Amino acid sequence: MQPRNRRGQWGASGRLTPKSGALSRFKDPVLPGSPPFEGVDGPAAPGHAGAIGSDSSPIPSRGGRLVSTAVIDDALERASPPGVGGYSSYQELTRDFVPKNARKRRKLRGKKAEEAREKQKTDIVKALKNAEVDYYADEVENCATEFMVFRCGLCGTQFGHPRTCKLRFCPRCANARGVRLAEKYADVFVGLPNPRHLTLTFLSVKHIDADYIRWCFHCLQRLVDRKFWKHLTFGEMVAFEVTYGPDGYHGHLHCYVSSKVGRLPIELIRGAWKRITGANWCFIEAVHLHWRKAVFEVVKYPLKVADFYDEPKAFREYVLAIEGVRLVRGYGAFCRLAEKFKPSGKLADISCPVCGQTGYIEKIASYEPASHFEHVGWGWRHLPHGPPEGDG
User: Fold this and answer.
1) Cys staple from 155: which of 13, 136, 280, 355, with CB 3.0 to 4.6 Å?
2) What is the C-alpha separation between 189 and 130, in angstroms, rounded?
């Protein structure tokens, strides 16, 4: 028997050289319409000349078990680029139902998330009406109920864009805004090391307004301007969050910090923060998630619907306080980044979701009901002969 190298291949005289990976320890599954075993010079059944494990074959059996050359080591095959690794019986057996199951799971998750957002939207509209903020209640209630219709002059596709309220406490708009904010800082996160999640708190206050939120960010700016902070960090992305309890409003700043050192001196940060704000509770932890998920976790804090909308007076005060105030800001390496995928409103900048071309889009309708559209993989497809509103 010829010796094998570390990848499980035979020597020069052996002639067994799989395209990728080592020989598997398990028997290759027999596929319908295919020979069960592979010989040196082609298909061979057990007992025939050239079959694996026979006297005339240079490939012996392992302990009496027949081994097929068609089976490739799964770990090495997964690391190979598509189309480069050899034949895989696992891929052959699962190429049909695995993608279908994956699409089904993704569709189910999307459907459940959409149902949860619709339920939350109903609760928010009710809370806004109880808080006597009827203008915002109507905006959230009518969000994405009407569409603008566009047509591509190149491929003829008719598609729609929903008319949204763009309010930060609307569940649908908050989710879309979080995705855009995560993409805004995408290029910076990859190149910066040692991500840390720093939470800074403030003393509770009885009332909240826009000036209070600006003061919270001003306190952070005083911390960022400290010499020790500049020597320890590359930059930070900061999001504002507020909770409500018996003592009033309790503000927080959630900071995604890129550190120049392995461990940030929390004692030094806590002392400086107490001298600035009077509150000394700070908490820091390492970020173990993928950078995109970690960023979305940070930017979601100001986009979360306030958990106190069952308090009409407090909820009204919060809604009026965040109007026109930036709740997510970047400092250092995260400062002044252009937001990606922000719609410009110009027809020349709109691309066709099917062919991807720009410059061929024309607007054919401004207010179409949602019943005239079907949600597909590439977006909202317009149904020119859709059912009337209220019948579908």
Assistant:
1) 355
2) 41
Does the pLDDT at position 4 exceed 50? no
Residue 267 CA to residue 280 CA, distance in Å, equals 10
Q: Residue 183 phi/psi, 5° resolution?
A: -70, -25
Cα 369 to chain centroid distance, Å, stands at 29
pLDDT category of residue 200 using cuts at 50, 70 and 90? very high
Joined together, the tokens standing for residue 116 give: 């949860």
Tally of CB atoms within 10 A around 323: 11
What is the C-alpha separation between 226 and 243, in angstroms, rounded?
28
Specify the DSSP class assigned to residue 154. T
CB burial class (10 A; 0-12, 13-18, 19+) of residue 117? middle
**Would you say residue 32 has pLDDT above 50?**
no
- Residue 119: phi and psi, rounded to 5, are -65, -40
β 328-332/282-286 pair status: unpaired
